[in-house]
Amino acid sequence: MGQTQDGYQPYDQFILFGDSITQMGCNQEIGFGFHAALQEAYSRRLDVVNRGLAGYSTAHAIKVFDKCFPPPQIANVQFMTIFFGANDACVPGHSQHVPVDQYKENLKAIIQHPATVAQNPRIILISPPPVNEYQLEGFDAAKDTPHPSRTAHFTKLYAAAALEVAASLKVPAVDLWSAFMKPTGWHEGQPLIGSRDAPSNETFASLFTDGLHLSSAGNRLVYEEVMKVIEGNWPDQSPEVLPMVFPSWVDAPK
C-alpha cells in the first residue's frame, strides 16, 4: 500500500499464522512471549499481527486462511510465519489428527494459496516443537483425554515433514524441534528425550508449561530462532535496519 491522501504511510504487517502456541505468544501470564518480543523488536516499523487459532490443525487453517490474511488493498504483508503441526500430530484416532502426507500438502496449499501469492510475503515455516510426555499426562487429564493425545516419536515425524516442505519449496524454515532438543544434549540414536524411553529431563521440561504449550524459556527460543532466520536470509529487514514509519521526535514535524 502507498501513502494515503494525507501522507500517512500505513504500517506493513508481520503476520503470525498458527495454532495455540502462536495464540499464546503474547500471553502475559507466561512471561516472555515470542509475539510480544517480535512486536517490541519491530516497534514503529511493522505491525506484528497474531493470527494464532487454538486447537486448529492445517486442515482447519486452509479453510479460513483467506478470511484472516489481508488482500493487498487492505495491508501490505512483509513477513508471515506458518507454525502448525502440534495438533496435526495428535495420534491417529484423535479428532485433531491429520495424516502426515496430508499435513505436508496442507502446508504447501497455504504457501501457494492465491492470497499468499498476491502478497508475496517473506515466509518463515516453523516446525512443530517436540512434546514432553511426562508433562502431557496433566494436559490430557485436564482435557479429559483418557489416552495420550501425542507422543514424542510421532511429533518428530511432523517436525521433519515441515522441514521437507520448506526445502522442497525453498522457503526459509525454523527447525524448532532441533532447537528444543539441543539444550538437552540429545543426539540421534539415543533414547528420545521427551518420550518414556528416556528419563525425565529437567532442562527439557523447563521449555513447556504442560508438555505441549511453551513456557517463557520456550517462547524465547522461538523468538531467537525466528530472528536468526530473518538475519540470515533478509539482513536488510532486521529491525535495526528498517526505518521507522514515523520519524524520531527529533525529526518530527514541529
TrEMBL record:
Show which residues constitute the signal peptide.
Answer: none
Under InterPro entries, the record lists:
Iah1-like, SGNH_hydro, SGNH_hydro_sf
UniProt domain SGNH hydrolase-type esterase: residue ranges: 16-221
| Pfam families in the cross-refs | Lipase_GDSL_2
User: Which positions, given as ranges, span the membrane?
Assistant: none
- Coiled-coil spans are none
SUPFAM superfamilies the UniProt entry points to: SGNH hydrolase (SSF52266)
What PANTHER family does UniProt report for this protein, alphabetically?
ISOAMYL ACETATE-HYDROLYZING ESTERASE 1, ISOAMYL ACETATE-HYDROLYZING ESTERASE 1 HOMOLOG
Name of the protein this chain belongs to: SGNH hydrolase-type esterase domain-containing protein
Q: Which organism is it from?
A: Penicillium salamii
